[in-house]
Amino acid sequence: MSFTRIWVYLAEQPLLWLTLTVGVFWLAKHLYFKARQFPLLNPVLVSVSAIVLLLSATGTPYDEYFQGAQFVNFLLGPATVALAVPLAAQIDTLKRAVLPISIALFVGALTGILSTLAIGWSLGLNGQMLLSLLPRSITTPIAMGVSDQIGGSPQLTAVFVIITGILGAAFGLPLLAALGLRDPVAGGFALGVSSHGIGTARAFEYDQQAGAFSGLAMGLNGALTALLVPLIVWLFGLG
Asked: Among 17, 146, 199, 237, which is disulfide-ready with 191 (CB 3.0 to 4.6 Å)?
């Protein structure tokens, strides 16, 4: 039986893309640990690249892929809520660090937005492209909602969010180590503010406490950025 006939047969099965997505991620994860967590072999980066290549090679539209793999998207909600469980074990640390966390959250959110604005302007971006880029540091569902409200393109924003998360997960911890920052609370919080859920997954691999505070930062930064971005758009007359 030829490859084409095999592929046509498999493509008719409802769980094909879900199975392929899980399988590709499992292989990427295995490769990542075999390579001793080499940053450029981040499982999300490798999985996304492999799936994009596969979709291109088979001429499969994204809508068709998403229809088959949407169960993974459904699990994002429960997985996000589950981040509260490890954070509950860190409640005493959280109480002691409320003030520095609050300051770090505000400074981190504002820096993320303003640095994005500065980079966008330096690259000559404006209009819908620039507006789509502004909420790139927060989790995808919130970022797409913010983008839609300020006149950006939610689909384009989702791409920027994923790129930001992959870069943060790949290079965040090495950068923090190079800066001499090894505290799991500070490091995890920094990853959550800068690279949302993908960075949080990396933080959990590094340290459970770092993962707990990264999840906290991801949620709080999503809420704060949703308030700050429209304000900055109004202040700079970007809308």
From this structure: 199
Alpha helices, DSSP H, located in the chain: 3-11, 16-34, 43-58, 62-82, 84-88, 91-96, 98-122, 127-133, 140-150, 154-178, 184-206, 208-235
DSSP state of 145: H
**Biggest alpha carbon–alpha carbon distance for the chain:** 65
Burial per residue of 21-35, b for 16 or more beta-carbon CB atoms within 10 angstroms, e otherwise: beebbeebbeebeee
Two structure tokens written together for 134? 């502004």
**Crossing angle of the two packed helices 62-82 and 16-34, in degrees rounded to 10:** 60
* Calpha distance 194→108 (Å, rounded): 7
Single out the residue of 206, 147, 215, 166 nearest to residue 44, CA to CA: 166
Sequence-ordered list of residues with C-beta below 8 angstroms from that of 93, at least 6 positions apart, any chain = 185, 209
Name the one residue in this structure whose structure tokens are 């047969």. 9
Q: Which whole-number Å values give the CA distances from 123 to 58, 118, 160, 174, 215, in the listed order?
A: 34, 9, 15, 27, 31
pLDDT in tens, 177-220: 999 988 999 999 999 999 988 899 889 988 999 999 999 999 99
